[in-house]
Amino acid sequence: MKKIINKTVVLSLMLSAGVAGCNKQLDINNNPNQPGDDVIKAENILPNALHATGSVTALGYGWLSNWMGYWSASGSFNPSTEESSYNVTNTFQEGKWTGTYNVLFDLEQVEQKAKAAGETFYQAAAMITKAHLFQFLVDIYGNVPYTQAFKPTEFPTPAYDDAQAIYTDLQAKLDEAITLMQGATVSTKATEIDVLNAGSKELWIKMANTIKLRLLIRATQVNNNPTAELAKIKANGGVLQTTQSADINIGYLNDVSKQSPFYATYGLLPSGEDANTFYRANQYSIESLKSNQDPRLRYFFKPAKSPTNAADSFIGTVYGSEPNSSFGGDQTSNIGQGLVRVFNQPQWVITSIESLFLQAEAQLRGWDVGSPYADAAASYAGAVQESFIWLGVPDAVNAANNYMLVRANWANAADFTAQLTLLIRQKYVALTGINPQEAWNDYRRLGLPNNIPLSINTARGSRNIPVRLSYPSSEYAVNAKSVQTQGTINTQTSTIFWDK
């Protein structure tokens, strides 16, 4: 169990981070009431940077849950034509770019300030979190500014690094961070400032190993010899295991702007009203869960408040459809109790579910990552069980075992292809509403699951689910020389290097 964090200390430090964190543009006016950069310490910035990491990791991906067949717009709303036609431009979701780079800037400040002060715990924590976010950026955009980022004086127009080279360097940076973390001293104050892993060096190292494995898994379809990296993962204790999610808890309150981020967006407002009125279950996801008699249905989704058919209260909408009062907000299923449990729930960054499914695929491929499970079959079962546990399904392990026995039995998968198909399908289900990014990555990497329904918006034409996003319009405004070196980006065909 993670240590309970001193909430007063954390909130105080986050207020300091709000003042300091971080000055992304030069301010020629000297305000004597505002602390200068030279007196801002790593500990003042880190809590807010970690909290923001949770937000940019888990929020703002409703569009991707729509693309991946998890969610869809309520029939009370017009769908986004740009999104549901897959005809996305460089203004589509450009906040993903700027928001993630803003957090990375803060983490860079933590790393550099901690390094200068000899605070290796903070330095390593920042490096590991940066690797997590840079992989996100590469997986969405491909080549991005990396080595020249965050050096505005030296590189006012940072160049774009090759995506595959970034992946390689992230492995090296994670190795360095693990070494620093292993030798770090963790003070009592550090356990309070670390709102992600509460000062646990073990969890930070396992988080780093999980990111290392995720980098390797993502590159399975390209020429890639993972032997050396796998040996490091095993030697350093393996990946996050059951109940070891990397998540944030700063002491959330049931007040405006103080609830856990995912809950505040998709759960209940402090007034008790639904925070989310737009997104509802996708019919594809609902029908799949029903047909497999999956007990997780009522944890991924809520019963409709006023279903048109009293005999069936779990109802989804069809992605890309026009508004229809029969499938309005009250007639369809909202986000469920397993995802929006309580206002002060931890905000996940990397879940144990994701980690265990990565481990299961590694074992299926014959990779030794120091797993506590004997083989891929056992590892797969552990990952499915973890989904049930994480969602709060009663008698979770037995419920998961019964489900697998009838609906998702490893023994019925005769060869590698069948086993991989089963594993990725169950990973897809387990990540419903939690991590559509990982589902999109698997879909692009492997074409699995192979029956994700396309939008029925007539404006879609022959377009498919995009293989990436365009560079944002802000880059063409402030970094035009560098972004133009990337040529013309086609979101239907300009694949990320690992998408083969």
TrEMBL record:
Pfam families, A to Z: SusD-like_2
InterPro entries: SusD-like_2, TPR-like_helical_dom_sf
Keyword tags: Lipoprotein, Signal
Highest taxon listed in the record's lineage: Bacteria
Matches recorded under PROSITE patterns: PROKAR_LIPOPROTEIN
Gene3D superfamilies listed in its UniProt record: 1.25.40.390
Signal peptide: 1-22
Protein name stated in the entry: SusD/RagB family nutrient-binding outer membrane lipoprotein
Organism the protein comes from: Candidatus Pseudobacter hemicellulosilyticus
